[in-house]
Design a protein that fits this description.
This protein is of the alpha+beta class. It contains ten helices and 14 strands. The protein has helices at residues 22-29, 45-52, 72-75, 78-92, 158-161, 166-194, 221-228, 243-250, 258-267, 310-314, and strands spanning 102-105, 110-111, 114-118, 136-140, 145-146, 148-154, 204-206, 238-241, 277-280, 288-292, 298-302, 307-308, 321-331, 337-341. Strands 1, 6, 11, 12 and 13 form a five-stranded mixed sheet that branches. It has a five-stranded mixed sheet with strand order 7-14-10-8-9. Helix 4 crosses helix 6. It is elongated, with a radius of gyration of 25 Å. It starts with 21 loop residues before the first helix and ends in a 5-residue tail after the last strand.
């Protein structure tokens, strides 16, 4: 039995349609809905093309890279394979979904976000009959959010990689994705700490200085409670911490109860007694802790999906092929994220 996907003609121009990814173009030409009840059900349009050309990209029987270049049409699939492997590397250890309240797609290198200014900072008061209702003004930010292109250059000759198995080659591509994700996380942390250029840095507190108790240079559970108390009317539901702060918290007596230990040893996930999700981040400076209400603090802005230089990859000109992702971050409510510095010992 022949399927519609076997008659689809693949060409470079499929990567160049404005506002559509390669997979979206394939899905338009070869909708997945028409494969319900067939052996190809559950595969997307790109995976059906891999099946069509009998290209195995994972497992013990994975094909060498040169399998993509057996025909001119199958070579068109190679850039999408590269992009998918890079995206997988970006997603495997991605902390950004735990930080961003919203993700926005835009088509330019600059973006203007919005901010909300409530008339009463502590919430809505009782409104008497005939009295004016308190307002919340939605305004455009004064300064643009600048998007940054982050990426790596793939430097390899076709002769070097042509006989390498695709699953091994994908490992190196996932590492590239992990590196891009790390740079984007550093951008997000910079915006959380210093703002997005609109005068909205996070409030900073220091252990041992009012309103945080304790002794500078050390972190105690009581200090975390004092920090948690500063978030009203927001909720501190996420803690982003440096490696040394993570070690200090793991040694706190309040975290050494059987259930917390069981969860950490079994899953590697640690929730604090304050109910916040605890995330370790090596991009933070030592002695630094960022608490945030992830529902209101940060907006992530994307400018398209992972981009690869498809012409070079299709034509086997891999010597210098760029793999990039363009994104930026904007503060939504500045006080929904706050910083605690452990400080130096006296």
């Amino acid at each position: 039995m022949r399927y519609p996907c076997e008659n689809l003609r693949l060409e470079k121009g499929m990567y160049n349609e404005a506002g559509r990814s390669f997979t979206q173009v394939l899905e338009r030409e070869d909708p997945s809905e028409q494969y319900k009840g067939t052996p190809l059900e559950g595969l997307d349009a790109f995976q059906r093309q891999l099946k069509r050309f009998d290209i195995k990209v994972k497992g013990e029987g994975s094909d060498p890279v040169e399998r993509f270049f057996a025909t001119a049409q199958s070579a068109v699939l190679f850039p999408e394979f590269v992009a998918r492997a890079v995206r997988q590397g970006m997603e495997e250890s991605d902390l950004l979904p735990h930080l961003a309240a919203a993700v926005t797609e835009c088509d330019g290198l600059d973006y203007r976000s919005i901010t909300a200014v409530p008339e009463e900072a502590r919430g809505m008061s009782h409104v008497s009959e005939g009295a004016a209702i308190p307002q919340t003004m939605i305004l455009s930010q004064g300064n643009l959010v600048h998007l940054h292109k982050r990426g790596r250059m793939l430097v390899a000759s076709y002769e070097t990689i042509r006989r390498q198995k695709l699953d091994l080659f994908a490992v190196t591509l996932r590492q590239i994705g992990a590196h891009i994700n790390r740079m984007q996380l550093e951008d997000a942390i910079d915006v959380l700490l210093n703002g997005d250029g609109n005068g909205n840095p996070a409030p900073v507190y220091t252990v041992g200085s009012s309103p945080i108790g304790g002794t500078a240079g050390s972190l105690a559970y009581d200090d975390l409670v004092d920090f948690w108390a500063q978030f009203d009317p927001y909720e501190m539901n996420t803690l982003l911490v440096s490696g040394d702060v993570m070690r200090s918290m793991l040694k706190m007596e309040e975290l050494q109860n059987p259930m917390t230990g069981l969860n950490f040893q079994g899953t590697g996930t640690l929730d604090t007694p304050l109910g916040a999700k605890l995330l370790r981040c090596s991009a933070l400076e030592e002695g630094t802790l960022i608490g945030l209400d992830r529902r209101f603090s940060l907006e992530m802005v994307h400018c398209g999906p992972v981009a690869v230089e498809y012409d070079k990859l299709i034509d086997r000109q891999l010597e210098r092929a760029a793999i990039t992702s363009t994104s930026g971050f904007a503060k939504i409510f500045p006080e929904a994220a706050r910083v605690l510095e452990v400080g130096e010992s006296a």
